[in-house]
Design brief:
2 copies of one chain form a homodimer.
Chain A (H helix, E strand, L loop, with lengths): L3 E7 L3 E6 L4 H7 L18 E6 L7 H6 L2 H5 L2 E3 L9 E4 L26 E6 L12 H13 L5 E2 L1 H13 L4 E6 L2 E6 L6 E7 L3 E8 L5 E8 L9 H10 L1 H26 L6 E8 L1 H7 L5 H4 L11 E4 L12 E4 L9 H10 L7 E6 L4 E7 L2 E7 L20 E8 L2 E6 L7 E2 L1 H13 L15 E4 L2 E7 L10 E4 H25 L8 E5 L1 H5 L2 H6 L11 E5 L1 H11 L1 H13 L1 E2 L8 H8 L16
Chain lengths: 615, 615
């Protein structure tokens, strides 16, 4: 029998019971305290730092000795995944250990397309039954529709049939019917504005949009963290969990449907709508999220050559995937391209098609995986670059996600660091754009060379056997550890930016074209809209083109989902895009190792074939 | 807190626990002892007689005083629905109180149609994935099918997708695909014989047929009692239960899907098949069974003008209605005609179409409801006659269903009764055909007159204030009560046969034709195949035509279901039949009350308009 202890988390004040065989991390999750964890609780990411305010906990583990500094250990800091309560305890969760409060980009450029939704609405007034007209309810509606539309509709969704009789009678035989193809997918007793739901299902974030299907207007949008994060930050951890345990696979899938339902309820509350008004939905996500949500086998995605189970678009009843909207509504899943080029990339290409006005265009969505498409004379070729979670702040000593207190911009002004934090308050760590900025500034100042080595400088110090550049000193942090960029951090960024740059190089080489021919670079995705393009050019992550070549367009995947939601023509276009896109598996590209090694160098580059950058 | 007592049922020897607040009937059901109950446990049908062998039970109720004879009460007979255990008890269930062991007709004439099933099978050998061919699993299969069939297939069922990856790999990339329309509904690793399941869902019985879809051969057939009987024998009781309680509605629906799954498992075991081989199913049933199974609202069916919710045929995923066969399989529900003319009648008309060789044909399915169709020059008109459960032995003093020991045939030979029982053993009661025979014999012998009054005869006696004819005397029954036909029983039969005869008269009158014009009477259904046609003519239930006009064809509804299962053309024909059939609501037919009154008279009749029968 395991014993129970009272536990309290600060500053949220959340209280509950912690079992002795339950780590503080597990307990926090159960109580709804969202503590960050990138490694899934294995003690290796060091992100789940908490401070013991009172009470007794289990002994410090070797993982903690590796991850926690001496002052931290002296101040009772622990990794929540490694510590167990041995009595009642009070725990402080520092801001940087919270996984919520994160900035989630849901905004994007607005829609510009003629609404042509999959569900059409008709007013129907069937006659009441009498002793001589004893037709069934379904027949009354379908006969009336046929008379009105001069075509026969044959099917009524089973759930719609189940509520049809009462709706017909309560509405006094005057209803509105929603038709999809030749199927009645909804009956309403009044003329509701038909709504649609667009979902961009990301590895880290889920963005949801409530759209009026009549005029394609976005009524409300909202983002949430992907709750699967509690199973581990990166896709591969989740794929392996789903592969090893059917139960975990079901749990991972349910986490998504439940979060979508929550978002849907919130969006409706905000807009004064009812989820039953939502007659259609579109989901886009990377292939792994797509498969995890649909409980599809993920073995193929976790081993080379990374073959997905499903590429084709799917039309499924919303209820079959656990989404609670109108009873007969469908969810359309946009098609995937390959194991690591998913429906979100297809949605991005759909959304950005309007801006692809040049002969050579690069469309990229920067994230844990960065998908890049080179479009040349209409021919599309894509790659997926494993840029890793560096831009989410993972594997970076003082990295954090773009939450309150994250340093998002850094400038070196006469050997002094100036920075901007999210929310403008005291700094707690560096988010992706901050790390990118910092290293670009170090490179510009010559503190870091093209190989990434940190040289000497007043702000450079040796600490715990590693060179590091101090962004915010201890003095400024009231005695807490300084925020620094370490040699190891620079290496991490080189790997991330190298993956992206190598992807661009492979695409150019395969198309036989040079970086200078690129007429436009369209950058989508949350991270992509916050980065400083000049910094990205400085370190050679993006080609050295003039600023007017770049366009940062926000959440293009979400925008693509909205387009596919309001327009059947756009949905068709998405299917064509997925068919047309040629996919290059980087690992199989001749000479890739060399291209990648070259791409890790820090410095402006034109992305010519054979060019050595870092000059 | 209710106390528990040990209970034992004989002769089955079934033992268990009986709670004090649980009637013996409820307890028996929980333990799987199928005690007959027609009234749903309200103490009014008197069918659930059991004998207390030892132990103490609650006091005898007024319902029991009405239903149990003095000798029965003296011998500790109780109504199981009225009695509660007050201590450990041993209970004897007499043969006539068992609802199982009943003869269920599953046989019918064999199929004669060209197989043209909805699912077609193709062998597919997609190439394995490589580093340069990283197409998704679904695409591999669909591309290969397209190459082979020169048409594009777009959809793979979600459940099939979920198991596709492992089937493709375990079969070494050589699979068989089952296609329905343009959807892949199954993948198999070997060339299985594709099977289909036909279900005739009756109020009392469920008949199931396992059919080879290649050659339309019936591999196995099996019947079971409809488990909804525990909610009450007649349809209306169940409709009201479903209407009043959503929970009961769900339970009634689940009872059906679970019984179908049991039948399916048994049929497969018998044929050495796997339920996953079953790629298609067809269900026919009366409108009430159809609605109860599909959890459709039944309010309309329970009040005049008896409007169903659904008339159109439905194609639903088997899993959506709880039937466990091949993962992507559909169930086709044949269309209904009206509130009391269901898909089973459509199936009967489909099955009997081959025999409808005369200009005027009567097709009837005799049961609790008797559906009759008059076909004249191809024009079909149907009525539903509320013949009631008399033919199932209900509301008849010594009535019982066609189980072991039921008297099924009766002859009066020189003032002596000869009879035949089912199974040939000792008589326990009269089943429908026995009652029909007995009353026809009484009418022939002049013991009963055309008004139904029992006159004087050596075997007629007054008993408990009622006249009755003794079929089996006390002496022959070792002291147990005599089996008799009472004046009340004759009245019951008059109502039942009157309903049928009135239905035929209305059809003839509406068509403006006389009984003599009928070229053929096709009688389907279990009861219809056991009745003595001569007896039915004698009492005026069927028109007075020569014997070669009648054909008793067995379970035509089941046969129709099988036809619709193996042939898409037949499925289409069924939809046409349902559309073509004109329905007459008897209650609304001018002069119906008079027609009905006239039809209750006992005696041969030609069913001329305005004729007075009983001569």
């Amino acid at each position: 029998m395991s014993r129970n202890h009272a536990i309290e988390f600060q500053p949220t004040g959340c209280r509950g019971v912690c079992k002795e065989d339950q780590s503080i991390l597990e307990c926090a999750r159960k109580l709804g305290v969202d503590i960050l964890s990138l490694c899934g609780g294995s003690g290796t990411c060091g992100k789940c730092r908490v401070q013991l305010l009172s009470g007794k906990t289990s002994a410090v583990t070797s993982n903690e000795l590796d991850r926690l500094s001496v002052p931290e250990r002296a101040n009772d800091f622990r990794l929540a995944c490694q510590a167990y309560c041995l009595g009642d305890a009070k725990i402080h969760v520092p801001a940087e250990s919270f996984s919520t409060q994160q900035r989630i980009q849901v905004e994007g450029l607005e829609l510009s397309c003629r609404p042509d939704p999959s569900v059409r609405f008709f007013s129907v007034k069937p006659p009441r039954p009498t002793l001589t007209d004893h037709r069934a309810d379904d027949q009354r509606v379908l006969d009336e529709l046929e008379k009105q539309q001069q075509t026969a509709f044959h099917t009524v969704d089973l759930e719609v049939l189940r509520e049809a009789s009462s709706i017909l009678r309560s509405s006094k035989w005057e209803v509105w019917a929603g038709i999809r193809g030749d199927e009645v997918v909804g009956l309403w007793s009044r003329d509701i504005p038909p709504l649609g739901l667009a979902i961009d299902l990301g590895t880290t974030k889920i963005a949801a949009y409530l759209v009026d299907l009549h005029d394609a207007r976005t009524l409300a949008s909202k983002g949430a963290m992907n709750p699967q994060i509690s199973f581990g930050e990166d896709v591969m951890t989740r794929l392996v969990r789903a592969k090893l345990s059917g139960e975990d696979a079901v749990r991972l899938s349910k986490m998504i449907s439940e979060e979508i339902n929550r978002l849907c309820t919130d969006l409706c509350a905000e807009s004064g709508a009812d989820p039953k008004q939502i007659v259609d939905a579109v989901v886009v996500g990377n292939t792994a999220m797509h498969h995890l949500f649909l409980l599809l086998p993920v073995h193929g995605l976790s081993v080379s050559p990374y073959v997905p189970t499903v590429r084709y678009p799917l039309d499924l009843k919303a209820r079959e995937v656990g989404i609670r909207i109108a009873p007969g509504a469908y969810v359309h899943f946009l098609p995937n391209v390959a194991g690591f080029v998913g429906a979100d990339h297809v949605a991005t290409l759909l959304a950005t098609s309007a801006w692809q006005t040049h002969d050579v265009v690069l469309v990229m969505d920067i994230g844990t995986n960065t998908e890049i498409c080179l479009i040349r004379s209409g021919n599309k070729t894509s790659v997926s670059c494993p840029s890793g979670p560096t831009f989410e702040g993972a594997h970076i000593k003082h990295g954090m996600r773009a939450s309150l207190g994250a340093i998002e911009h850094v400038r070196l002004v006469e050997d002094r660091v100036e920075y901007v934090t999210i929310g403008g308050g005291r700094p707690v760590g560096l988010c992706g754009s901050g790390i990118l900025d910092a290293i670009a500034q170090l490179r510009l100042a010559g503190i870091v060379d093209s190989s990434g080595r940190i040289g000497d400088h007043a702000l450079v110090r040796d600490h715990n056997g590693q060179r590091e550049f101090v962004v915010v000193g201890e003095d400024e942090r009231a005695g807490r550890e300084a925020i620094t960029v370490t040699q190891q951090d620079v290496r991490q960024l080189q790997l991330a930016k190298g993956a992206i740059a190598a992807g661009i190089r492979v695409l150019l080489e395969a198309a036989g074209c040079s970086g200078e021919e690129i007429g436009m670079v369209i950058i989508g995705g949350a991270f992509g809209s916050y980065i400083d393009i000049a910094s990205a050019i400085t370190i050679g992550m993006l080609p050295d083109l003039s600023p007017d070549h770049f366009i940062q367009v926000g959440n293009t995947a979400g925008l693509g989902a909205k387009l596919a939601l309001v327009s059947l023509a756009k949905r068709k276009e998405a299917a064509s895009i997925a068919r047309e896109v040629a996919y290059i598996e980087l690992a199989a590209f001749p000479g890739f190792a060399q291209i990648f090694a070259q791409s890790t160098l820090l410095g402006r580059a034109c992305f010519h074939s054979g060019e050595t950058n870092g000059n």
